[in-house]
Specification:
Elements (H helix, E strand, L loop, with lengths): L3 E4 L14 E2 L12 E5 L10 E4 L7 E4 L5 E5 L4 E4 L14 E6 L7 E5 L11 E5 L7 E4 L17 E3 L7 E4 L5 E4 L7 E2 L9 H4 L1 E6 L13 E5 L6 E4 L7 E2 L8 E7 L4 E7 L10 E7 L4 E4 L14 E7 L7 E6 L8 E4 L7 E2 L5 E3 L21 E4 L7 E4 L4 E4 L12 E4 L9 E5 L7 E5 L6 E2 L18 E8 L2 E10 L6 E4 L7 E2 L11 E5 L6 E5 L5 E3 L7 E2 L9 E3 L7 E5 L4 E5 L7 E4 L8 E5 L7 E5 L3 E5 L6 E4 L4 E8 L9 E8 L2 E7 L7 E2 L14 E3 L7 E4 L5 E6 L3 H4 L4
Parallel strand pairs: 28-32
Antiparallel strand pairs: 1-51, 2-11, 3-58, 4-5, 5-6, 6-7, 8-9, 9-10, 10-11, 12-13, 13-14, 14-15, 16-17, 17-18, 18-19, 20-21, 21-22, 22-23, 24-25, 25-26, 26-27, 29-30, 30-31, 31-32, 33-34, 34-35, 36-37, 37-38, 38-39, 40-41, 41-42, 42-43, 44-45, 45-46, 46-47, 48-49, 49-50, 50-51, 52-53, 53-54, ...
Length: 741
């Protein structure tokens, strides 16, 4: 084939100001691209929402930040969240963990994001993204330190704050590098050298900055600021001279870490505390207020952790009704014994009402929130709660899986029930681990982190049956169907013994757990099922391969395969399975139902990651991506491979229905061709490729999984790490639209 090179068993392959105005996105069209419409496969929610922020000047202007899936703006017309950071490409996917978010209280069109997911040595530095059109376009300032949008303490905040009286001034509270200030709308930043805390302090550093609007006239910078630090000794600092000097606040509580704080119009400072940064491992907590006019501190904790059989927990979320001083909400965190709660007071904390007991929740928009039960809980990891400054009954709070909202929270003041519905429409934050699109039955079956996976009969609607159950697996690593009997499906993932995998005989509608796990192994790993559905090969993580011919009642150890590889089934031969070892550049195959594997090809490039697909209807036809080494094709069951010179980098590969007039399936690829990274389709076995996404639809890390639809030419399903499952169809003239279905 043109542009290919054969590889077989006998061949080897060889304290400053930081400036601004770096364009954050390139909207140019690329030659050879085909227009596609990209949408989310609807699940509605699925991940942690650590921050929700209302703009105080413009009604219905609401933002949400996520820990791995970017930022969103609420669209009040469609009642959906609009993603603002889909332009972030794979090479900069670290920017999709949003450490903090600030909406300008003076000029509502201004929006700021502190973007950076991890602080480990391998992660890139964070950036401040700034917009003057509510997130439609961005400019970017690279910062000289890392951020931790998906690390402990990510719901603390907000770290990024705009001066409400002189909005060109901003502060950012970093994890490891002290306090930073900008005086030019976030374009350049300087370290506040005289702030007394510069280190990690519980790995979280400085958590939030508050301005006191009473300390300045309009047009003048606020002179009084409060800064929270994740330290159990001195957690709160104050400046009364615009940051020139700082003092530890006198009389403050000790022994706990401040999580959220808010200042009401009358000068009362409210603070929630926990003994850990969250969202896990809080076991103690409290709520305090300080009358900043007198300096008096008062413990106003609704319920003390450990008292009255309440179990261990902390306090995290905090929201003030600024129109009614003394009215506020606080949330518990990690109250695992009886479930988290939201407490409301209208008298500054003298009396509290727990909302959970009478809260009525409607989870119909996201049935998975029932987690296999009959109703949804209030939620876990409630790190952020917000009251609408224009409508005091309107409240939103984020959990580890969704956003809940109510329009009648004030009913609790009359001892009446409050009503809550899912408000996460448009916000899809799942991490996708595997996808398959069978030729019959549901068009899509998924394997997801944290919420298991779904059978999607309708891509535009959250599955009403919720996530897979029986067994209920938190994170499903791998899913497969029998190519010639698509109703036979298997899946495996992380769970307790007896709950690590199962099989379905009706296309994933109902499931039966594997009766046993392979002896001495964990559940996570990969699984494959033979084309006729008769044999299952399972490779638990870091383990040998095992074979079952009785739906998982018994397992027999396979021979000849190194531990921990990903196994796939030939899509025609009922006894043939394959695996590639990227560590050794070696390819293995089995023709006896996985009982024995033998080395078929060596000398392939070594890498840390690879992706292998077997093509339906073509025995022995395989596609293999090797990290940093491109795309390889075999038509002889892995005895030899050819390297496609048309592809410069390949991350994931899949296939779908052939183009009109073609007999071979259309191929789909995430990777790079020439200097262009993205999502590509080939209709001629990889000779030519067309880009099918654009610079506005990049979705960060998309190297995990991609597959086409065997029934709809051109349709592609794309797995992301934090933006859920995407599907896309080519833009076609109306007269032709129906011919592809």
């Amino acid at each position: 084939m043109h542009g290919k090179k054969a590889v077989g068993t006998s061949m080897c392959l060889l304290g400053m100001a930081f400036a601004a105005d770096i364009p954050a996105q390139n909207i140019a069209n690329h030659p050879g691209a085909q227009a596609y419409v990209w949408r989310n496969v609807e699940i509605v929610g699925g991940g942690f929402v650590p921050g929700i922020v209302f703009n105080s000047k413009q009604s219905d202007l609401i933002y949400a930040r996520t820990d791995i899936g970017g930022a969103y703006r609420w669209n009040p017309q469609t009642k959906r969240w609009l993603p603002l950071t889909d332009w972030v490409g794979q090479s900069e996917s670290n920017l999709l963990g949003i450490e903090s978010l600030a909406t300008d209280p003076v000029e509502p069109n201004r929006l700021y994001l502190a973007a950076g997911t991890y602080t480990q040595s391998w992660a890139s530095n964070g950036a401040i993204l700034r917009s003057t059109d509510q997130g439609r376009t961005w400019k970017r300032t690279n910062m000289p330190f890392k951020m931790g949008g998906n690390e402990d303490g990510r719901s603390i905040g907000e770290r990024l704050t705009v001066d409400p009286k002189q909005n060109r001034h901003l502060y950012f509270a970093s994890r490891h590098d002290g306090l930073w200030h900008s005086g030019d709308f976030g374009a350049t930043w300087s370290k506040v050298e005289n702030f007394p805390v510069t280190g990690r302090t519980n790995g979280v550093g400085i958590g939030f900055v508050l301005f006191d609007p009473r300390s300045a006239a309009t047009g003048q910078a606020c002179s009084t600021l409060y800064v929270g630090v994740a330290a159990p000794g001195v957690g709160l600092y104050r400046s009364r001279d615009s940051g020139q000097t700082w003092e530890a606040m006198p009389g403050q509580p000790a022994g706990l870490l401040p999580h959220h704080a808010a200042l009401d119009p009358e000068g009362r400072l409210y603070v929630t505390y926990g003994d850990a940064p969250g969202p896990n491992e809080m076991s103690k907590g409290a709520v305090w207020k300080c009358d900043t006019r007198t300096g008096k501190w008062t413990d106003i904790t609704p319920v003390t952790p450990g008292s009255a059989n309440m179990g261990a927990f902390g306090y995290a979320g905090l929201a003030l009704d600024t129109a009614h001083p003394g009215t506020l909400l606080v949330t518990t965190m990690d109250k695992w014994s009886s479930g988290d709660d939201i407490y409301r007071t209208t008298d500054g904390g003298l009396h509290w009402t727990g909302l959970k007991a009478k809260a009525e929740r409607d989870s119909s928009a996201s049935p998975f929130l029932n987690f296999g039960g009959t109703s949804a809980a209030l939620g876990h990891w409630i790190g952020s709660i917000a009251i609408d400054p224009f409508h005091p009954g309107h409240v939103l709070y984020g959990t580890g899986a969704t956003i809940w909202g109510s329009d009648d929270v004030t009913a609790a003041d009359r001892d009446l029930p409050t009503h809550w519905t899912v408000r996460a429409q448009g916000l899809e934050e799942t991490a996708v681990l595997d996808l398959v699109s069978p030729p019959t039955g549901a068009p899509l079956l998924s394997a997801l982190g944290d919420i298991g996976g779904f059978r999607h009969d309708d891509l535009t609607r959250a599955p009403q049956q919720g996530m897979y159950t029986n067994p209920l697996i938190n994170s499903t690593d791998s899913i497969d169907f029998a190519a010639e009997k698509p109703s036979a499906v298997v899946r495996v993932g992380s769970g307790s013994p007896g709950k690590t995998g199962g099989y379905s005989t009706d296309g994933g509608t109902t499931w039966t757990p594997f009766a046993t796990d392979p002896e001495g192994t964990a559940g996570a790993g990969s699984v494959a099922i033979a084309a006729d559905g008769g044999t299952i090969v399972r490779v638990p993580r870091n383990s040998a391969a095992f074979v079952s011919t009785d739906h998982g009642r018994t397992w027999t150890r396979s021979a000849g395969l190194p531990n921990g590889l990903t196994v796939v089934a030939d899509r025609v031969g009922k006894h043939t399975f394959y695996a590639f070892d990227p560590r050794a550049g070696a390819f293995y195959g089995s023709d006896d139902g996985g009982a024995h594997f033998t080395l078929r090809a060596q000398g392939l490039p070594k890498s840390g990651r690879s992706h292998l697909r077997a093509v339906a209807g073509h025995a022995g036809d395989l596609w293999l991506t090797i990290e940093n080494n491109g795309l390889y094709h075999s038509t002889d069951a892995g005895k030899t491979f050819t390297h496609l010179a048309t592809v410069d980098q390949a991350d994931a590969v899949g296939y779908g229905k052939a183009a009109p007039g073609q007999s071979y399936p259309a191929l789909y690829l995430t990777g790079r061709i020439g200097e262009t990274a993205g999502v590509f389709r080939s209709d001629d076995v990889g000779v030519h490729w067309v880009r099918i996404n654009d610079d506005q639809h990049q979705y960060g890390w998309i190297g995990q999984v991609i597959t086409g639809d065997p029934r709809v030419y051109g349709r592609v399903y794309l797995g992301t790490n934090g933006r859920g499952i995407l599907y896309a169809d080519p833009v076609r003239p109306v007269a032709q639209a129906g011919t592809q279905h």
